[in-house]
Request: fold
Amino acid sequence: MKNYLEELKEKIQNNIKLENIEIVDNSYLHKGHKFFSSEKFHLHLKIKSIYLQSLSRVNAQKIVMKILEKELKSRIHALEISIEK
Reply:
């Protein structure tokens, strides 16, 4: 069975032309915060994509967030997106 982060990685790879993606789970950094939930993730996506790099930063992030729309409503509390060439 694939873990949740691998499922996210696959979903993004299937919807965007990219060269590489790394998903970093930073949830542990937020344990003491007021709205922390162990059922929701704090993630940092490090995406290497010539395609996304050709778009404005806002539009590139909108594309990624649209792909993860369902997850943002249910399993992802915070999402940081870094896009590089």
User: Anything to note?
Assistant: The two ends are 32 Å apart (CA to CA). The helical segments are 4-15, 50-53, 57-67, 69-74.
